[in-house]
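Quick one: structure tokens for this chain, please?
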Amino acid sequence: MALITSLQSLLGALVAPISKAYQAKQVRSAAAESAKAKLKLVNQEKRFDLSLKDAEWEALAKQQETASWKDEYVTLIITSPFVLLFVAAMVSGYSGDMRYLDAVNLGLESLKSLGVELGELLKIVVLAAVSIKGMGLLRK
């Protein structure tokens, strides 16, 4: 009997995230459809006032993001110094030659001398990837 109970709780723990993800997808789809319908109505009636809920704004923004490559480009550029630093540390550690790590550190110091704060830029990129609404949740 204890085995059946533990199997049920294990199965419930496995199924719950899948169920929540499916429900969230359905809510996002409904918000997107609602936003499209409101936009169509406003265009047909030649009005300029549009009242959308937060979920509808997010759905419209996500639709626009799919055709955009700029976010990915910015993310690659901003995160590249961290990737280079990691790779240089691994190569320097493996080979015993510290020139790789020194070269990357010199590049990072050059960026700092220009007034670029990489930590803040990385934070902005990560928060933008989460979304504007996610930024508000993370700040709380």
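The CA atoms of residues 54 and 98 lie 51 Å apart.
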